[in-house]
Amino acid sequence: MVRNNNRQRYWTALLSLCICICIGAIGFVGVFGRNSEAVYAFNSSNMTDANTVSVGELLWTDTYDANDDSAKVFNKIQFDQFIDKLRSGSEQYTAVANLSNKNAGDLRAINDGKDIVVTIDGRQWTVTDLRKLADGRVIATMWLATSTELSKWNLWCTNVPTATYVANMYSSSYMRNVTLNSGDCGYVATEADAKNAVLTPHTQSATHPYAPFTMDTVMSDGRNLSLTDYIVQPKDVAYQETETMRTYNSAWHTAPNEAWGTPDLVKYYNTSLNYSAKPHYNDWAEDYLWLPSLAELGYASESSSSGITGVWNVSDNQRSNGTNSWTRTGADNDVYRVSTLEPSGARNHLNANTSYAVRPAFHLDLTAAEQAAGLDLPTDETITYDGAGHKLTDREKMPTWYSEAIYGDATRVSVEYSADSVIDAGTYEVTLKL
Are 53 and 116 in contact (CB under 8 A)? Predict the structure, then answer.
């Protein structure tokens, strides 16, 4: 039996004592079958327990259904552990709605210098930013921690600044429309198409690995696996409207694709690098999944220049990967190259038609996710009668639904028995108040 009263949660279990004690309970939905605590490396040398704190799979992947309000989407145990890692020392009992803004550097400071890595839908994501939006929602920005998936940013790469669609414009790129499954305006397949303003249509695929992050309906075995109800689009994130590399290094010119609105400190290399009037230029602002910009990521120091923190202040460990990784940012001085991060976290400009690693990001809506977080469904358990008194926790091995982190914390949970002792044959009630 589950009851709500003064925002507390009650779980009631029956203890039946005959020849054995049977423990039954009714709680939230599902038995999760793919919980992973492993931490995959940004690369083999730096993604270790010494550098990261990890949270297991946030989703009830075997049971959630976006079309069923009663089927919880997020594993509350893992979700609460995740939120704990976002709290500073003064925020120990702070609700999600009252968490303070923090970039990746701030989050490292409250986690012993370690970056946070969270598993969502079987993939490892590193947390880069935490902030409250103007409408009160709280978001955590998640960047794919590591990737061996390679893709071209675009299928062609020519210096044609007068074209309607240039090679390093993100919204009309192959990367956005096909590789990341946006399937929006379409992509430019050839140089001739760019000059003639021809876009190749692309329909989103429900079997794409990123479909749950990009589509409102992703049906599988009668369940809708979409996560878009829990993702905030860039159009609702203020800094993405105006961000620019020039905030961090005035030697840069205004680069394409960083801000979806008018960037701060505008100074173009020449007028051909201002794409704001080109068709579909700002379309990516409505994407659920997108490549981060160099302004967001910053880059590591290199022999020719010092590094910059960027909006998120991510670590060099977070930036690093086994191979070059694409960003959203076009070169600030030509129309055919795109900014990348090298395995060291340093930056480069490379031709758009080459293949490098794909590491997308998204804004997880913690406010919505908190409302969709629930616990595992308790199951019947058996304790052999031995003439002694028993409690719910009198087991050599606790049932899978029992979480010591939740039920064993006396500051969060109280346990009440319907009788002073559970010895004689009969039925007893145990209530856990969370």
Answer: yes
pLDDT, average across residues 146-166: 95
Q: How far apart are CA 332 and CA 349, in angstroms?
A: 9
Residues 61-92: tens digit of each pLDDT? 999 999 998 889 999 989 999 999 999 988 98
Task: Encode pLDDT of 171-204 as tens digits.
Answer: 999 999 999 999 889 999 999 999 899 999 999 9
Q: For residue 410, is pLDDT > 80?
A: no
Q: How many CB atoms lie within 10 A of CB 69?
A: 10
- Over residues 232-271, the pLDDT tens digits come to 999 999 999 999 999 999 999 999 999 999 999 999 999 9
List residues bridging with 428 in a β-sheet: 15
The phi, psi pair for 144, rounded to 5°, reads -55, 125
Write the DSSP string, 71-111. Answer: S--EEHHHHHHHHHTT--GGGTT--GGGPPPEEHHHHHHTT
Please report which residue ranges of 166-298 form alpha helices under DSSP H: 174, 191-195, 211-214, 239-242, 294-297
Cβ atoms of 395 and 381 within 8 Å: the answer is yes
- Token duo for residue 21: 């004690």
Name the token pair of 389.
């008194």
Q: What is the pTM of this model?
A: 0.83
Q: Encoding tokens for residue 42?
A: 């940004």
Closest CA to 55 of 28, 85, 21, 92: 85
Q: Is 107 exposed, middle or buried (0-12, 13-18, 19+ CB in 10 A)?
A: buried
Mean pLDDT computed over every residue of the chain: 85
Distances (CA, A) of 26 to 80, 389, 414: 20, 23, 17
Q: Give me the helices (H) in 127-256, please.
A: 174, 191-195, 211-214, 239-242
Query: E strands, 211-342, where?
Result: 219-220, 223-224, 231-232, 325-330, 337-341
User: Which pair of tokens denotes residue 322?
Assistant: 């086994």
The residue assigned the tokens 């794909």 is 358
